[in-house]
Design brief:
Blueprint lengths: L11 H11 L13 H9 L16 H16 L5 H22 L7 H12 L7 H24 L15 H11 L16 E3 L5 E3 L6 H20 L6 H18 L6 H13 L13 H13 L3 H21 L12
Antiparallel strand pairs: 1-2
Helix pairs in contact: 3-12, 4-5, 4-6, 5-6, 6-7, 6-10, 8-9, 9-10, 9-12, 11-12
Keywords: ATP-binding, Nucleotide-binding
Pfam family, one: Fic
InterPro entries: Fido, Fido-like_dom_sf, Fido_containing
Length: 337
């Protein structure tokens, strides 16, 4: 949620002054994306799973999680399973829309209403509410990123596949324009006001000053593309590394908060854009919102591990769902991707 200065109890002048120069250091966003050498080292060497944290899996997190995700990725490349994956992806896209919007307190708050609105949209019926518009726009934005990557894939050879998840500023702006069409007047445009959010402890978290947003976004995109080329490119099938990259992009995007609204939904979309290099369906963020916020705060204050594992656990659950729904054996495909 964005709280503009005019809505805060303090006077507007006090807030602007605070944003520009008087805010306590701990209330300012730390530009994590600037720590390039440290993050690149973690991308290549650090383990996302080598610590005692799991929301739901208990012990043996490493073995269960990576083994299952990698197996499903292997299966997604086999011709005999393509129809199963197409059918499963269709359902997961709708589940993704529901969980993304529910996690950001927008759109329909039940899966039944979400599916109903998406069906009405597919049948060409008029959208009847703001919630319906928010719901349908999320699907459209997801489809836009899928189409963007498919277009890039058509121009690449096998050794260049990682370039299909390269990002460009225009792509991000167009995605936001689709996501927020009919919901805000400045969809696809960077915010022109200061913004902050209220933490659970009632302290204010101030985002990047609006006049720095464009430079910060370009810096984030440039470094992200560097990681894709240098870290992912040299080890394209390292699944753990891909999740690290997705968490890096999602967190730093929401930390910059470049738009007036829709930043949380955009961060989730961008994480899935990264993971689409290998994962055959979108990853839904099904964690409780408090767990999600806690993972974001931990990333901001100390380390990206918790946020990364949150992504991996959700992907793991989706992979299990695929295997179980099709009565498939998880041990059968234990070979190289």
């Amino acid at each position: 949620m964005i709280i503009h200065p005019s809505t805060i109890k303090e006077s507007q002048d006090d807030v602007i002054n605070g944003l520009m120069k008087e805010v306590e250091p701990e209330y300012r966003i730390k530009p994590t994306y600037l720590f390039k050498k440290e993050y690149t080292k973690w991308m290549n060497q650090g383990s996302a799973l080598n610590f005692d944290l799991s929301y739901s899996l208990g012990n043996n997190l490493d073995e269960k999680l990576l083994f299952t995700i990698e197996n499903v990725i292997r299966m997604s490349k086999m011709e005999q399973y393509q129809e199963l994956f197409r059918s499963f992806k269709y359902g997961k896209q709708r589940e993704y829309v529901f969980n993304s919007n529910k996690g950001e307190n927008v759109g329909h708050q039940t899966l039944h209403e979400t599916i109903s609105s998406l069906q009405n949209y597919k049948e060409g019926n008029e959208l009847s509410s703001k919630e319906s518009n928010e719901t349908v726009n999320t699907l459209k934005a997801l489809e836009f990123l899928n189409e963007t990557r498919s277009e890039m894939l058509s121009t690449l050879n096998e050794s260049e596949l990682h370039h299909s998840i390269m990002l460009f500023e225009d792509t991000i702006k167009e995605c936001h324009s689709i996501l927020m069409k009919g919901l805000v007047v400045n969809n696809g445009l960077y915010r022109q006001k200061q913004a902050c959010a209220m933490r659970d402890d009632n302290t204010l978290l101030y985002y990047v000053d609006h006049d720095l947003v464009a430079d910060r976004c370009v810096g984030l995109i440039d470094y992200y593309n560097t990681i894709v080329d240098e870290c992912v490119g040299e080890d394209m099938f390292n699944v753990e590394k891909l999740f690290k990259l997705a968490s890096y992009l999602a967190f730093n995007f929401v930390d910059i908060h470049p738009f007036s609204d829709g930043n949380g939904r955009m961060a989730r979309l961008l994480a899935n854009y990264v993971l689409s290099l290998h994962l055959p369906f979108p990853v839904t963020f099904s964690n409780d919102r408090k767990e999600y916020i806690a993972a974001v705060e931990t990333f901001r204050n100390s380390h990206p591990q918790q946020f990364t594992v949150m992504l991996m656990e959700n992907a793991f659950q989706s992979c299990l769902d695929f295997l179980k729904s099709n009565n498939l054996n998880n041990d059968k495909y234990n070979h190289q991707i």
